[in-house]
Design goal:
The protein has 621 residues and is mainly beta. Among the domains are: 83-195; 201-367, Methylamine Dehydrogenase, Chain H (7 Propeller); 466-511, 2-Layer Sandwich (ligand-binding face of the semaphorins, domain 2); 520-619, Immunoglobulin-like (Sandwich). The longest helix has 18 residues, at 2-19. The radius of gyration is 29 Å and the shape is elongated. Residues 26-460 form the Sema domain. Keywords: Disulfide bond, Glycoprotein, Membrane, Signal.
């Protein structure tokens, strides 16, 4: 049986590796093609918190013992606030830790017009501070944060700040077995610890709704699976609701605990292929005008190292909580349905509270939109997800995802009516780097990517990297970009764009459809080994070499299409064109004219290229 499941697993991985070519980034863009601005981070940062400042032209960055305030539209150096170490006393929880006295920022919120709420590890004694925003830096009230902020930088503890109250999912003890969803404020809720092994991933407000009493906070988490069969994944993914109006139950049951806490499974997979994604990694929400149309993009992985994105709506999640049967409960429901938000939860009947306490799980799972399949499945391992709504030149609102790679790259992905298209792989770092966090500023069309040493601003409307022709700009299918009849630039109402198909036909002869290539003449010694190089800009295009009208084999390397000539003779003289074809449009990328001349033979290339060519020739036999 075990061998059977291993065989199935390997087969599925192989099939999706083959299908993964459909989700290959069309282009790769580095700092040569995209505008990147960078700010260095002080110290040894292993966790970075990012928060958008006022009017979208500033950024708060929390790290190792410091809070930075960056004014994005100026060249002024960031302002800094230092958070002192707790002291030199060793922690009883981890006495060998070298940084157990440090204050690493783990929670960062705008509390009100005048203050930020900043929480940090504080030497395994979490503490929150209210920090003045204007002027920046002075400390206000501080509060102990056990139960609402992490004890260490490695602990995920999502939170949201609603009104003057903080909702958080964290441990209340450093041993890590005291997780619960809590609310800190005038209406504090401090429920009993959940004994199940859980990892909280994200927390969002479901609202505002027409009736504020119906506003809810959704928390997304993974939980150790109670199914111990060998083929079962060790984790399952859930979404939990609590009502914002909930103030707890009666003195005899659920006092100071949630009376509205319900949980539902998140379904993500392809049942017909026996492929399931049960490990939730990250969540991003694209808000809509109506709360129930807001879309939840959830990033999952599985035990085979693959990733998937499944999309849900707030309305679908709400429907499960308000209509599904309660798991393990078969009697008639009380007249007041358990879990429905009410104005005075302390007056709920005892049978309602008991049902919530004993049977908090929904029987029906939350299924993804459009028939229940993932938006995309990839053999890559993604770590973070962000999502933006972009109005294109066509006046339509397009959805764009940003997925971080383990290498430090970011995939820019178009969600077009449930079909994923990877527009580009952005490379904000010159070397392999672990991305710690990402922040999307939709109003400014900027993405901020943080590593342990710097924060990089990616200008999403930097479009010149797609090329200097209308066709190249249109085929990018980037909602942020359009052709203005002179260059590829930020999308405007008058711009030329085709996000849906990338059809080159929208370009005209006056739009810079193509620029003639200039032939490069080369004289090559007889019997020399030679090669011609053609840069491959789009991975979706087909490249071929043509010699005097005949097709020649293209040897693909990283970013290039090579034509190898083992021994130059007069029959190799003539015109060579490298032609790319994509979406029904063909163009000549480079063109050479070769001529054989008498003389000593050799390899016409640089020493490094010569070595590479010799290796290729050896491999090709």
């Amino acid at each position: 049986m075990v061998r059977f499941y291993v065989w199935i697993s390997l087969t599925i991985v192989f099939l999706f590796k083959a299908a993964d070519s459909n989700l290959t980034p069309r282009v790769r863009l580095t700092e040569k093609e995209v505008n990147f601005r960078k700010w260095g981070l002080p110290g040894n940062t292993v966790r970075t918190e990012l928060l958008q400042g006022p009017q979208g032209n500033s950024l708060y960055v929390g790290g190792h013992g410091k809070l930075l305030y960056i004014k994005l539209d100026t060249s002024i150096l960031p302002e800094e606030v230092d958070f002192p170490k707790r002291g030199d006393k060793k922690s009883s929880v981890n006495p060998t830790a070298s940084n157990n006295c440090d204050y690493d920022i783990t929670t960062l919120h705008i509390a009100n017009d005048s203050h930020l709420l900043v929480c940090g590890t504080n030497g395994y004694h979490p503490q929150c501070h209210f920090v003045n925003r204007k002027p920046f830096g002075s400390f206000g009230e501080s509060i102990a944060a056990e139960g609402i902020a992490p004890f260490s930088v490695t602990e995920r503890a999502p939170s949201v700040y609603v009104g003057n109250e903080l909702y958080a999912a964290a441990n209340s003890h450093a041993n890590g077995n005291s997780l619960a969803i809590r609310r800190l404020g005038l209406r504090s809720i401090w429920p009993d610890t959940n004994k199940k092994e859980q990892r909280y991933v994200s927390m969002v407000l479901s609202g505002p709704r027409e009736d504020p009493v119906q506003d809810r906070v959704y928390t997304f988490l993974v939980e150790r699976n109670s199914d111990t069969r060998p083929e079962a994944d060790i984790w399952t993914s859930w979404v939990t609701q609590v009502c914002a109006a909930d103030v707890g139950g009666t003195k005899s049951i659920l006092q100071k605990s949630w009376t509205s806490r319900l949980s539902a499974r998140l379904s993500c997979g392809i049942p017909e292929k026996r492929m399931y994604f049960n490990r939730l990694v990250d969540v991003a929400v694209l808000k809509a005008e109506r709360w129930n149309d807001s879309m939840v993009y959830a990033l999952f992985n599985n035990s085979w190292g693959m990733s998937a994105v499944c999309v849900y709506t707030m309305g679908d999640i709400d429907r499960i909580f308000t209509t599904s049967k309660f798991r393990g409960y078969n009697d008639n429901l009380p007249s007041a349905r358990p879990g429905v938000c009410v104005k005075e939860s302390t007056k709920l009947p005892s049978e309602v509270l008991r049902l919530i306490k004993d049977h908090p799980e929904m029987e029906s799972p939350v299924e993804p939109v459009r028939g229940g399949g993932p938006l995309m499945v990839s053999h890559r391992y993604y770590r973070h997800i962000r999502v933006d709504g972009v109005t294109g030149s066509d006046g339509r609102r397009h959805r764009v995802l940003f997925l971080s790679l383990e290498s430090g790259g970011v995939h820019k992905v178009l969600d077009h009516d449930g079909e994923a298209f990877i527009i580009a792989e952005l490379q904000p770092f010159p070397n392999k780097t672990r991305i710690l966090n990402m922040l999307l500023q939709s109003s400014q069309r900027k993405l901020y990517v943080a590593s342990s040493s710097e924060v990089v601003e990616v200008d999403l409307k930097s479009c010149q990297g797609y090329g200097d022709q209308c066709v190249a700009c249109v085929q990018a299918r980037d909602p942020y970009c359009s052709w203005d009849r002179t260059q590829c630039t930020s999308a405007s109402r008058n711009g030329i764009q085709d996000v849906e198909q990338g059809n080159h036909a929208v370009c005209t002869n006056t739009d810079g459809v193509a620029s003639p290539s200039r032939s490069k003449a080369q004289k090559i010694f007889r019997w020399s080994k030679h090669y011609l190089e053609c840069p491959m800009f789009s991975s979706h295009a087909q490249y071929v070499w043509k010699h005097n009208g005949a097709d020649k084999e293209c040897v693909r390397t990283e970013g290039s299409c090579l034509l190898l000539i083992d021994s130059m003779t007069p029959e190799h003289d003539g015109s060579y064109e490298c032609v790319s074809s994509e979406g029904g449009y063909s163009s000549t990328v480079v063109e050479y004219d070769l001529e054989t001349e008498s003389g000593a033979g050799g390899l016409v290339a640089s020493p490094l290229a010569s070595a590479c060519l010799l290796l290729l020739l050896a491999l090709l036999g």
